[in-house]
Amino acid sequence: MPPRARRNRPGHQSELNEAAQLADRLQQAGYTKRDIARIIARDPSLVSQFYTRNKGAAFVTALREVLTAVEAGGITDLPELTAIAARHTHRRTTASGTRARVRGKAVLIMPTGTGTGRVGAQAIASGSARLRPLIAEAARQGLRMAFTVRLAKTAYVHPSGSATDSPGVRRDVIQRADHTEERSYGSAQTGGFDAADFAHRVDAAGGDVTAAVHEWLVETGRIQPDAHILHLEIRTWRPR
Predict the structure, then answer these.
(1) Using an 8 Å Cβ cutoff, are 233 and 117 in contact?
(2) Which DSSP letter does residue 111 get?
(3) Does the N-terminal or the C-terminal CB of the chain have fewer CB atoms within 10 Å?
(4) 180-185 and 144-152: which strand pairing?
(5) Strands (E), 59-196
(6) Cα dist. 148→3, 46, 110 in Å?
C-alpha cells in the first residue's frame, strides 16, 4: 500500500496558539522542543501540549523575551536563556489570588532532614528541574546531601570499587544487564556533601541540576566529559 499523502492545511500557523507559534519560531532558530522545555524549566511533554491541548498561555511572555534575546540580542546559550525566561515565568494564581497548586510530587523533607528525589531519562534531558527545589530547601536548612547516578559502564573513568571513585565502597555500585552501572557518591557515614555548595553549582548552571552533577563528576575525574547521565537520585539528611 502506498504511503498516505500528508495534507498541508492552509492557515495551520494561524490556528496555533501564541505559545506554539513562539515555540515554532524558536525551533526555526535551531532549538528543539526539548531545548525549549529546558529554557522554561518544564517537562518536554508540556511543550508538545502547546500544539495538541492549547496549553502554554502562562509562558507566552517568557517565550517572547527569549525569542527577542535570540533574534535581536544574539544570545544562544541555554543557561542564559533559561535565566531570562525565569524572570517572566510565574505560577498560576487562584481566584482568591493565592498560588495555584500544581500536580506532581511535592518537595518533602522530614524533620530529620531526610528527603529523596529521583528523575529518569526524560526529566534529566530537560535539566532535572524537579530536583532543584529539593536541593534549594536542603541548602536553606543546612542539610547534607548525596546522589546516585546511572551511566553506561564505559562512561566511568575508574573501575567500580576504585578507592578514588566510590570511594572503594563496592556495595554502593549496582551493575545492570543493559551495560549501565549505578554509583552512589556521599553518605551519612562519609559525611556527604554540603547542600549549599551544590545549590550554588545548580544556580551557576542556570538551574540545570543534571549539568551541575555532570560538571562535578567531570571535574573530580569520575566520568568522561561526553558521558550522559541516565538516572539521578538526590538524598538529604541533617548533619549530627
Answers:
(1) yes
(2) T
(3) N
(4) antiparallel
(5) 115-119, 144-152, 173-175, 180-185, 193-194
(6) 46, 27, 20
Residue 133 grid coordinates: 527545589
CA distance 209 to 199: 9
Distant-in-sequence, close-in-space partners of 74: CB < 8 Å, separation ≥ 6:
none
Digit-coded pLDDT (tens) for 202-217: 999 988 999 999 999 9
For residues 229 and 101, what is the distance between their CA atoms, to the nearest angstrom? 30
- Compute the C-alpha angle 115/120/122, nearest 5°: 130
Cα–Cα distance for residue pair 165/64, rounded to 1 Å: 45
110's CB contacts (< 8 A; 6+ apart) are none
pLDDT digits (tens, 9 = 90+) for 62-116: 999 999 888 887 888 887 888 888 888 765 555 555 444 444 444 678 887 888 8
